[in-house]
Each structure stands twice: as C-alpha cells, then as structure tokens.
Specification:
Number of domains: 1
Strand order of the largest sheet: 1-3-2
Helix content: 25-40%
Number of helices: 6
Radius of gyration: 16 Å
Largest sheet: 3 strands, antiparallel
Strand content: 15-25%
Shape: globular
C-alpha cells in the first residue's frame, strides 16, 4: 500500500504505533524474530552484516522495509526525516486527519521510523453505500 492509498483509506486501519529505530542493532534486540527473516532475505546471518556490507547494497531503511514486508498481518510505513512518506504523514497530521500520538514533524534526522497498523475489524468503515 502506498501513502496515497492510506490517505484515502486511513479509517480502515487502527492500533497504530510509531517505532523509533536508532540503528539496526536496536531493531534486532527488540525483535529477535527478525534475525531469521534477515537470514532468509539476505542469505547470511545478521551477525555477519558488517563483513558482508559491501555485498549488501540496501541502505538500513531498505533493510527494515524488506524485513517488515514478511509480516502479512500488519501494514507498515517506514520513513525517515523529510522523505516522501514522512512528508505525506506530516500532511495527514496537519489536516488533522490522524493523530499519531506524537508531533510527526519532530523526528530525529538520524533515525528510522515505522508506522505500524492493523486493518480495522470494524466492518462499517468498508460500507460504501
């Protein structure tokens, strides 16, 4: 799903939270299940990333996105300071279409962020009549 799709359908999602990821080590400490996913995605254990870094062309934000793509029951927007997703999320906040629980404008430029959400179980939001 793209941010444009989300902008038009944000009422279909709930249980939103924003993660702040200081670095990849921080992500793997908090979510150890990602270790297996990383190895499946890249063909070697995360512990070898520093040695293999020249073979991995993906930036950290792309690595996070690829790993989160393995979770089919959740939706994620991975963003960093002033990238397209971040700017689109700021617009949603400014329009008061959504409250993220934080000021989405104020994020650390050195960090990666993830907006996590579930599809709502409230079937009324899917009624088009």
């Amino acid at each position: 799903m793209t941010i444009t799709d989300y902008t038009n359908n944000y009422l279909k999602y709930d249980n939103m939270s924003i993660w702040e990821i200081k670095n990849l080590d921080d992500l793997f400490k908090a979510h150890e299940s990602m270790l297996d996913i990383f190895e499946k995605e890249y063909g070697f254990p995360y512990s070898q990333l520093k040695e293999q870094r020249e073979n991995v062309k993906d930036a950290d934000i792309v690595i996070v996105s690829k790993l989160l793509d393995h979770f089919g029951d959740k939706h994620f927007f991975v963003f960093s300071y002033n990238d397209k997703h971040h700017n689109d999320l700021k617009t949603l906040q400014d329009k008061k279409a959504i409250n993220f629980g934080i000021d989405i404008h104020v994020v650390n430029p050195q960090r990666i962020y993830v907006l996590e959400m579930d599809k709502t179980q409230d079937l009324k939001v899917y009624d088009t009549v």
